[in-house]
Here is the input.
Amino acid sequence: MNNELLNELTFFVLAIFVGIEVISKVPTILHTPLMSGTNAIHGIILVGAIVIASGAHTPVTIVLGLVAVMLATTNVVGGFVVTDRMLEMFKGRQAAKPAPQAPTPQAPAPK
Amino acid sequence: MTIAIALAYLVAAVLFILGLKQLSSPKGARNGNFTAAVGMVIALVATLPLLHFTTAGVIIILIGAVIGAAVGSVGARMVKMTAIPQMVALFNGVGGGAAALVAVAELLSSGAHPAFSEAFPSVFSIVIGSVSFAGSMIAFAKLQELMTGTPITYPGQQVVNGLLAAAIVGFAIAILVIASVPFSFIALMLLALVLGVAFVLPIGGADMPVVISLLNAFTGLAVAASGFTLNNFALIVAGTLVGASGSLLTKLMSDAMGRSLANVLFGAFGQTHAGAATAAGGGPTRSVRSASAEDLGTLLAYSQRVIIVPGYGLAVAQAQHAARELADVLEKRGVEVTYAIHPVAGRMPGHMNVLLAEANVPYEQLKEMDEVNDEFKNADVALIVGANDVVNPSARNSPGSPIYGMPILNADQAKNIIFMKRSMRPGFAGIDNDLMFGPHTMMFFGDAKDSLTKLVAAVKAA
Here is the structure.
């Protein structure tokens, strides 16, 4: 196992823990926007699509590259825009919004 | 990889993590999305200097990016708020497809005998990405009602799907060990596409959000695997973040429905009554009470406490503004109005909050299930607008029901129940609702928006 692979594995494992930890307290009302937001983030595959498309020179690689870039760009752009549209609905209302689902079930009803 | 690019990827990764963090709290959610988008731009720009472009490469990247950006932005802007779940499915699916194609292209370019450390993640990415693509398209078709939303099942289905999965694993191992008729990757991809379709077919429309969330996590993992193939840290970190957080989110979503993930995926939920639903088309055998707008208007106008229970029917009819108008006229008369929001009201957790926020309903009036459930017994009227399964008492009472154990709103405990519905058709889960036949229940048939408008007029007249 070479050094680079070892580094990659390290990043991979650490990212698993960070990914779980960072969203562990998400309230129910944000499930949909969060799903949509993570959906946009995996649009990072556009980086991969550009990498493989950049060197395309045979018909097969040209077709694969074109389709991959097209799909990945749709993912990125659509993902961020649709998430923003959802979250736009919440703007200006945050101040009035107490944490909607407190982790403790006995939390009193917010006024 | 030069140092500058590595640092740029590090910045992008940090921005993704911060973005996720902000996205999971109501305060910063919108900024979180923006933060993640900035990370994306940084990662993309940083990648470019690394590459040696062919002419064809430049052309296809430009064409692909223009088409993709147009489809993505127009699709995301034009979509109605009610159709957002299937839009997310679509965007997720194309991401999975892109991941699979990247892996195929990379394997084809690496000759007859790629190193195992490159071939393994590629094969993984091809399989998972293709499953995610095909599964998401079926989820889209079900939610868009291009095909039936009820589960499609046949005897021995789980066995067939299991064999299909086993065949894919076997084929993948064969590719890794024997390597490599190049186009065997394409065959592997086709098999995985079939599995994706077969996997989602038996799952009912009501459970699609959980499935979309799971496939979203799948796509994240496929992207991470492509990152291992290309030795690209940005792909590994971002893909893994999505894979991990998406998995947790999937679990949280099935928890909100009071069911296990395995039950969602393999329970063929709601199919038991699919036949009964069509049989009931001519009218139910049990009788229901229906009431006129005037009667109901009077009842509402002279109530003290009214709890509105909005559901998907309200969303479909775009009736959120009409609901708010009714609440306004009632409040003017001194009636206390609140909205009871079931965690999975609409078709996705949080869907209903988004819609009501669009109609400028004040947050203080929106109450979560745990908060509001004890208040139903003090309510004069529970006004159910286009909801069904989330108020179905059989989730509490009849252990044989497919939704038994799902937490529901206690609308049945209100003194009067107004059940607004388009028809007697069962809800998305495809099961009958005893509440419609209850002694305190009055049905008010019609499109949610029209009905609410009529009630507004009736309350004003009362």
